[in-house]
Amino acid sequence: MTTRDDILGNETPVQGTRLFGEGPQGRLPLTADALREEPSGNLFGMTQNVAMGWHPEEVGRDHYCIVSTHGGLRAEDGSPLALGYHTGHWEISLLVERAAATLRDHSSIPFAVYCSDPCDGRSQGTEGMFDSLPYRNDAAITMRRLIRSLPTGQGVIGIGTCDKGLPAIMMALAGTADLPGIVVPGGVTLPDPEAEDTAIIQTIGARFAHGLITLDYAAEMGCRACASSGGGCQFLGTAATSQVIAEALGMALPHSALAPSGEPVWLDVAHRSALALLHLKAGGIRLHDILTQHALENAMLVHAAVGGSTNLLLHLPAIAHAAGLSLPTVADWQAANRSVPRLVDVLPNGPRNHPTVQVFFAGAVPEVMLHLRDMGLLHLDVLTVSGQTLSDNLDWWAQSQRRLLCRERLANEARVDPDHVIMSADQARTNGLSSTMIFPTGNIAPQGSVVKATAINPDVIGLDNVYRKRGTVRIFTSEKDAVNAVKGMTGAPVEPGHIIVLIGIGPLGTGMEETYQLTSALKYIPWGKHVPVITDGRFSGVSTGACIGHVGPEALAGGPIGKLRDGDEIDIVIDRNTLEGRVSLVAADGRELAPPEAALLLSQRTPHPNLHAHAKLPDDSRLWAALQQVGGGVWNGCIYDVDRIVAVIEAGLAV
To answer: N or C: which end of the chain has fewer CB within 10 A?
Structure first.
């Protein structure tokens, strides 16, 4: 039983506590000129370095910052003392340690700072999701401040894994691109071949509600989904896509994305990345030399080729903005997607659904880029953090023993043909893989929307490769209500033939929460493939189905999506040949509407009576929503455009 003294304390620890100590012995490597000319902070920094245990004779070495998203606290044997929020940052400290040891062994002083990150999987369906996307901007700001707060720093290593933490790291490094810098992707979790993967396992509630699984099955599979304690999820969602993009931008070493966390090949990336950073410093190469417009175009092509998460529509423009590049437009994304079909067969998009670790052993990013090079699509002269051009990197990869061994092990031990995981364009088209993203417009989405066309169930695609759906609108103003209706837990359940329209969950409503609870429930219910979802929110990178998101303007900004009503009829056409689509109101009150009539009705209607910002949307996220709206909103990547924000504030103050 806990006593009062247990809580308030007693005199015992006071008796053994020192009042004085003895400072470190030795001498700082000071000079008279340094004492006269160096800022006091640089001098006091030496004192603090020695106090933390660094040898006084060595404190004049070059300083390097390692910024990571590490979370949790591990004992020396790896057992948990305090859990992190997710596996993606649980083992990151091992990468920090390996990189730091390499810097130290090469006569440098590493500094390690941390800005941990949330888990989108943990916060799905909860109010925690209201902080998910806004966190990214805050974290990038914090990381940049940490990097700049080491004014003696000669370079920076960013180590991160997951949905918002890794984009924040890339934004932070892009915003301090006058330094040499490099990204170490945090890798992926190993799958258990006898268990469900981390995508399917997030649907146990919906499947149980429909009697598709038992309680015992849910309990066992929920326990076994992660076969290693670290790394991002086993599917090509936002976490894995962000790792791919870091490498495609040239910010990470070749064949570093999607390495299995905790394994020797994963730790080796941290070691080699530290060596590469020292090489960049010696060669006078800064991230500014690597993050170019051509590097951005390469990354967009790779995104299309891997079938990446639509969340990168938010993150890649934000990285470009931080680097001072021109932001990619919808036309730019369309051009990239028209250039190449999806080449990678990976969870959750199929058709065979290989886990991400198998993509790594098939060759991952450099293998995909070999195919893109064969197609003549890449800017091969861009510089990368290897210190070499992309062309040089790909020449190395094509002939490397590393490539040969990876592909042999995948074929021999997993019985998987690597050419079935990463395909040529001709193979991909033969296997029915089309281009990744389409940007439907129409009277419901005048500013546009996005759908991952490769994630639509092939069973509902016409023989002409066009998805067509006309259905009755079911309006929901919260994801919770929509999920309950899908589970059949309401008096008016969702049924085949309905089109779910989820409104008020854009930036102004919920901080632009993800809706994976909803899309995953539909995926694993037999009739769910016949129910599309349209929303002004966003989707998890693992979402599948006819999921049309980022609808603009959002409902709370006056968008027509917020004026729809139950019983309206919508027509959806998504052409995977021309990469064009439309989402339009075509009937209301039992009456067909010509296009001018539909436009007039939407202009005259008031917003849906239940439309409102969520009552528990935090003030922090409300501020983020207001600032990013001034910066151009969702289609500009939810950035903070400081010049525009200042201009708006000054104009308001003048009024």
So the answer is: N
C-alpha 506/C-alpha 537 separation (Å) is: 4
Q: CB neighbours (10 Å) of residue 95?
A: 30
Angle CA(145)–CA(231)–CA(385) in degrees, nearest 5? 55
Query: Among the residues of 414-478, which ranges form H helices?
Result: 418-421, 425-430
Strands 448-452 and 108-114: unpaired
Per DSSP, 475 falls in state E
- Positive or negative, the Cα torsion across 351, 353, 357, 361? negative
Beta bridge partners of 185: 160
Which one of the listed residues 132, 261, 309, 540 is annotated catalytic? 540
Q: How far is CA 118 from CA 81, 168, 495, in A?
A: 19, 12, 34
Pairwise CA distance, residues 358 & 264, whole Å: 16
* pLDDT for res 516: 83
- Report which secondary-structure segment, H or E, holds 502: strand 498-502
**Distance separating alpha carbons of residues 484 and 467, to the nearest angstrom:** 27
Q: Is 129 exposed, middle or buried (0-12, 13-18, 19+ CB in 10 A)?
A: buried
Alpha helices in 324-389 (DSSP H): 330-339, 356-362, 364-374
Query: Which of 337, 330, 309 minimizes the C-alpha distance to 244?
Result: 309
Helix (H, G, I), strand (E, B) or coil at 585: strand
For 585, residues 6+ apart whose C-beta sits below 8 A from its C-beta are 443, 444, 560, 564, 568, 569, 570, 593, 598, 601, 602
In angstroms, the CA 475 to CA 499 distance is 9
d(CA 101, CA 313): 36
**Separation CA 608–CA 501 (nearest Å):** 12
End-to-end Cα distance, the chain: 64
Within 13 Å, how many C-alpha atoms sit on residue 9's CB side? 5
Q: Where are the alpha helices (DSSP H) in 110-263?
A: 120-123, 132-148, 165-174, 204-209, 215-224, 238-248
Distance from C-alpha of 243 to C-alpha of 256, rounded to nearest angstrom: 8
Listed in order, strand segments (DSSP E) in 175-322 are: 181-185
pLDDT for position 490: 87
Tokens of 524: 């694993």
Beta bridge partners of 552: 448
Residue 435 known to be catalytic: no
Q: Which residues of the chain have pLDDT under 70?
A: none
**Residue in the block written with tokens 């998504």:** 574
Nearest residue to 581 (alpha-carbon basis) of 570, 590, 592, 591: 570
Task: Name the packing angle between helices 132-148 and 619-630 (round to 10°).
Answer: 80
Q: At what angle do helices 264-283 and 92-105 cross, to 10 degrees?
A: 40
Paired residues of 308 in beta bridges:
none
Q: Which SS3 state, helix, strand or coil, does residue 154 take?
A: strand
Question: Quick one: pLDDT at residue 240?
Answer: 97
Can you give the pLDDT at residue 234? 93
CA distance 90 to 69: 9
pLDDT at residue 207 in the model: 87
Structure tokens at 57: 């004779």
H/E stretch holding 431 reads: none
What would the two tokens of residue 404 be?
């040969």
Q: Is 178 exposed, middle or buried (0-12, 13-18, 19+ CB in 10 A)?
A: exposed
Residue type, 204: I
- Name the 3-class secondary structure at 165: helix
Q: Which two tokens stand for residue 125?
A: 């369906």
Please calculate the CA angle 122-127-130 and round it to the nearest 5 degrees.
95
